[in-house]
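Data deposition worksheet. Section B asks for the primary sequence of the deposited chain exactly as it was used as input, without tags or linkers unless they were present during the calculation. Section C holds the resulting structure in token form. Section D is free text for depositor observations; keep each observation to a single sentence. Incomplete worksheets are returned to the depositor.
Section A, Depositor: J.P.
Section B:
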Amino acid sequence: MNLGERILNARKKKGLSQEQLGEKVNVTRQTISNWELGETAPNPEQLKLLSKELNISIDELLDNDVKSILVEKVSNTEKLAGLVLRVAKWIGICFIIMLVVDFVSLIIFSFNKDSLEVKKSEGIELQCTLNENDYLIEVGSDGYFNCSNCSKEIQKELKDDYVDFGNIDKTKENIDKYFENKNGFCE
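Section C:
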């Protein structure tokens, strides 16, 4: 559609005759007819007056497709905004899940605090002598055993037969007896 056809359609849409439109834009009926037939074209000042009287933009009159560009830009902006909203929604959901997990962990930890505390291990330290050799024997209820200067045989025998990690007092008695039976002693 050319400029003349667009002027004709817009004039008819407004219900104006060529003469009425001519009066409003300060031209003759014949000038309006020439524009509509495409024989002449309005100057920029006349285009502004036509645009105002026909309630149509100059871009629409001249078929400058600015409207579709604007619609496309608005559409792209809406798509981007929708994407941003979806991403923000998922970030929010993940944040809420993390808060719930933290809260549940805090509750579980507070109820199980007693079971998580490290128990102090009980232990003994004995200085024993046998055949003029000194031995330092250390035993802990946590499974710790050390016998400095002990041969591997004495260490194995003590650990396997005389040490009870669950009963440190009984362990002390057992080690004392072991050294007494071999003519030694413990302090």
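Section D:
The chain is about 65% helix and 10% strand.
The CA atoms of residues 53 and 178 lie 120 Å apart.
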